[in-house]
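I have been asked to look over a protein record a colleague put together. The record follows directly below this note.
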Amino acid sequence: METEVKKTTGPRDVFSHLLSIIFLYVSVIGFGILLFGIIDVYFPDVLSDTYGWYAKSALRWPLALLVVIFPLYLWFTSYLERDLEKNPEKRALKIRKWLLYFTLFVATLVIVGDLVSVIFSFLNGELTLRFVLKVLTVLALALSVFVYYGWNVRKDVAASHDPRMKLFVRAVSALGFTAIIFGFVVAGLPQTARDRQFDDRRVSDLEQIQNQVASFWQTKRRLPNSLDELRDEVLAVIPPRDPETNENY
């Protein structure tokens, strides 16, 4: 059996399995960050006033990551399943078994750590809806990985050939794409993000002008008649202009 495996496997199989697992880890982390960000938008921390603008901007990186990595992961997984159907002896490939068991090990640790975190937070009086949703998110991601890869370890039949597992895989994939689409809706259109950047720049400029006016008053004991009076080439004081129109404020 081992001789047959060596004859039918090569570097391509090793790299394919490695890439599949790497894409899995990156996708799971990306979905975790994305879903945490969505929860932060709709259930902000009452002790922090930064979630309103920061949570939405924090969604862009996981969205950019998932748009590329998640479809690649699904394609690699489908490719490996088809390859295993044609070459069943590859199921005995050592790197495949190592990666599958390591993935199950990590998923088990995440589930156990998740439960410990729930108990600790309950005892610490921090069992808020926001926290519970994040715990359920981590638990759902870990269980999804555990169920699918646990099947691959225990069964010699591809998940796509079992009706229940096929339905499970399709449901998880559909939920994944739904989360990505909803993330784009929450994060807003690119033009909206660009407009927000202009607004942030204007707020910063107005704060700078306020400081320049205060410094002008401290020096000359009067307010300037116009913003042009604030200009001082020696001290490098130049009143900022509107970043979009380049006009004075």
